[in-house]
Specification:
The protein is an alpha/beta fold. Helices cover 42% and strands 14% of the residues. Strands 7-2-1-8-9 form a 5-stranded parallel sheet, covered by helices on one side. Strands 4-5-3-6 form a 4-stranded antiparallel sheet.
Length: 319
């Protein structure tokens, strides 16, 4: 079975969309997405420097547009499973057929702007915690009044919250763990983002949805969601809820995924999967970073693709 994955914030690199603009129609597509998102995605993907593209308001629609642009060059209909990390869930939902690519980019523009505004309300941040016992790491995070905002598996948990609490946490880290401050604007996926969740919900209420045509995993708990309205509700809630990528990877393994394509800008999720799903039965992975990677991605899809008449997993209705 084949899984197609869409990366989240932090995976962007200066100029990463430049080679994609050589594909006929790609620049026009990006300019259309730019109009929807309210930012110049052509400039951001081809000319902007690292400082400019780490701005949350710009990065989020850029990543969603990039994943959709790359996916348009593949037979995505042959994918058995679709998943995205954080903002990558928006492009994943579009690829699974929950809503249009235009809706995904529009929501990403709102999400990015509103999360950036929430970050400006008070000094917050995030730190990666590498190693240590996961239960002890989470307990220590919570003891300092912080949140385990991302549980990425492969020995990586991200703590988020007030800058002062993060400093105290770093000074007394969990046993056998390293704490690395992240260059982000604020405490994503925590209650600090509540104003952004409220704003996104207002816009999301006008989005037309359908049930996913392929198995679509949710960051909330790693389950496959079969109801389109429930997935949209989860995408809104995810602004303040932790990203459980560890559980998504467990679901990928449980579904028997044998091949993985990570969409542009690829590498982050592939690295986590390589460290978490090791040994016999580890999936074959293709990272799709430039059009030169398309032949390998298409070949992997042809060898591992498996369609499902009905997505497996969570059967709940809209909340």
């Amino acid at each position: 079975m084949l899984a197609v994955l869409s990366p989240g914030q932090g995976s962007q690199k200066p100029g990463f969309l430049t080679p994609w603009l050589e594909i006929p129609g790609a620049e026009a597509r990006l300019r259309w997405f730019s109009a929807l998102a309210g930012v110049d995605l052509v400039h951001l993907g081809a000319q902007a420097d690292a400082e400019e593209i780490k701005d949350t308001a710009r990065t989020q629609p850029l990543l969603v547009a990039a994943a959709l642009l790359a996916a348009e060059q593949l037979p995505i209909e042959d994918a058995g499973v679709i998943a995205g990390h954080s903002v990558g869930e928006l492009s994943a939902a579009a690829l699974a057929g929950v809503f249009s690519g235009e809706a995904a980019v529009t929501l990403a523009g709102v999400r990015g702007r509103e999360m950036a505004a929430a970050c400006a309300l008070e000094p917050t941040g995030m730190s990666a915690v590498l190693g240590g016992d996961p239960d002890e790491v989470v307990a220590t995070i919570e003891k300092h009044g912080l949140f385990a905002a991302n549980r990425n598996g492969a020995g990586q948990i991200v703590a988020a919250g007030a800058q002062s609490a993060l400093a105290e946490f770093a000074a007394a880290p969990p046993t056998r763990a390293r704490v690395i401050p992240l260059a982000v604007a604020g405490a994503f996926h925590t209650p600090y983002m509540a104003p952004a969740e409220t704003a996104l919900a207002t816009v999301a209420a006008g989005v037309t949805v359908t049930d996913p045509a392929r198995t679509l995993l949710s960051n909330l708990d790693g389950t496959a969601v079969t109801n389109g309205q429930e997935m949209l509700d989860r995408l809104v809630r995810q602004v303040t809820a932790p990203v459980r990528w560890d559980q998504c990877m467990r679901t990928l393994a449980g579904l028997g995924v044998t091949g993985v394509v990570e969409l542009a800008p690829a590498g982050t999720l592939a690295g986590l999967i390589k460290r978490e799903l090791k040994g016999e039965g580890a999936p074959e992975i293709v990272t799709l970073n430039t059009p030169d990677d398309l032949p390998a991605a298409r070949d992997l899809i042809a060898r591992h693709a498996g369609r499902q008449d009905r997505p497996a997993g969570h059967q709940g209705g809209a909340r």
